[in-house]
């Protein structure tokens, strides 16, 4: 598929998870076959105010391409100005977040709050599209709640406003992340527009990726929580959709090797002190399903130095071989 002039060659993309989809994680996922990655959402207002923390979210490396920077906000002019600033970081695509359900974002009129104001949403998309040279995409949800399901309307508006692609998460804002994603609404969005549609929600295995493709007809699936502690899911999806079977089933030694590589990369990007603290949650995710997982996760929560992660990996291997 193509998003504007950007070729996307593969089977699954990495979702823009706040506090997770940083440079290190995006790079590891790309190594395992993620065909497209989206960075953590950044505040348009913060970017325009030259906030350092916001600017750090916008790093783009060649190892991550094709990669999108994601912005959130509710003012068309501010969003356009932020898009111009973010374009200086060299993203392949700029994505507009109109789906985040977090109360902090919604209470300020951003994220999924824009589902309640389609007219404003359209103005934001138009402003950003006019302001930048790279393709602009939009991420939405099914609707605000079950009484206000308007994903198809939002998709039409996005297309008419110049968006190059749409990502649809198959839940309302009220549902947050439960229960199961609605594949029917994703199918309806795909049928309603001519631009590419990316399906998001509950893609946690090769089988669920195939189900998303089969039941919705989307151009691409997006993986979020299914990649936590398991970046190899992208390769597994590719194998399953290509051959009907999965060859990539890493044993504990390979899992721990990937974890150590991931966390060392994270520390090299952020510095050891902040990096190892950020790594604690990732290390805990890598322990899922292992013998002694509860104790290993508890130790992951106390990591203080890079050497600690190597010792944790050795213990995990010892307990599981």
From TrEMBL:
It catalyses: a 5,6-dihydrouridine in tRNA + NAD(+) = a uridine in tRNA + NADH + H(+); a 5,6-dihydrouridine in tRNA + NADP(+) = a uridine in tRNA + NADPH + H(+). Its EC number is 1.3.1.-. FMN binds at residues 16-18, 70, 139, 169, 224-225. Its cofactor is FMN. Residues 14-314 form the DUS-like FMN-binding domain. GO terms for molecular function: flavin adenine dinucleotide binding; tRNA binding; tRNA dihydrouridine synthase activity. Keywords: Flavoprotein, FMN, NADP, Nucleotide-binding, Oxidoreductase, RNA-binding, tRNA processing, tRNA-binding. The active site is at 100 (proton donor). Belongs to the dus family. Catalyzes the synthesis of 5,6-dihydrouridine (D), a modified base found in the D-loop of most tRNAs, via the reduction of the C5-C6 double bond in target uridines. This is tRNA-dihydrouridine synthase. It comes from [Clostridium] cellulosi. The lineage of its organism: Bacteria, Bacillati, Bacillota, Clostridia, Eubacteriales.
């Amino acid at each position: 598929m193509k998003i504007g002039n950007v070729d996307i060659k593969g089977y699954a993309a990495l979702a823009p998870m706040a506090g997770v989809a940083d440079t290190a994680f995006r790079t590891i996922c790309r190594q395992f076959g993620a065909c497209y990655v989206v960075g953590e959402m950044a505040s348009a207002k913060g970017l325009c105010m030259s906030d350092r923390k916001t600017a750090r979210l916008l790093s783009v490396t060649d190892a991550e391409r094709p990669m999108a920077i994601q912005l959130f906000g509710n003012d068309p002019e501010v969003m356009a100005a932020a898009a111009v600033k973010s374009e200086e970081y060299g993203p392949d695509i700029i994505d507009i977040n109109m789906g985040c359900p977090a109360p902090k974002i919604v209470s300020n009129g951003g994220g999924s709050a824009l589902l309640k104001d389609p007219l404003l949403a359209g103005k934001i998309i138009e402003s950003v599209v006019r302001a930048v040279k790279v393709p602009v995409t939009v991420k939405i949800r099914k609707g605000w709640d079950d009484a206000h399901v308007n994903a198809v309307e939002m998709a039409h508006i996005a297309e008419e406003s110049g968006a190059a692609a749409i990502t649809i998460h198959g839940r309302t804002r009220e549902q947050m992340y439960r229960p199961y994603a609605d594949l029917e609404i994703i199918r309806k969005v795909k049928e309603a527009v001519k631009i590419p549609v990316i399906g998001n929600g509950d893609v946690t295995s090769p089988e669920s990726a195939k189900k998303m493709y089969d039941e919705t007809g989307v151009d691409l699936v997006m993986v979020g929580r299914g990649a936590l502690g398991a970046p190899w899911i992208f390769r597994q999806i590719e194998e399953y959709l290509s051959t009907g079977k999965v060859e990539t089933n890493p044993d504990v030694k390979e899992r721990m090797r990937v974890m150590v590589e991931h966390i060392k990369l994270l520390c090299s990007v952020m510095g050891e002190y902040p990096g190892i603290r950020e790594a604690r949650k990732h290390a805990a995710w890598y322990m899922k399903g292992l013998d002694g997982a509860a104790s290993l996760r508890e130790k992951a929560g106390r990591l203080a130095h890079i050497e600690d992660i190597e010792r944790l990996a050795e213990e995990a291997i010892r307990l599981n071989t």
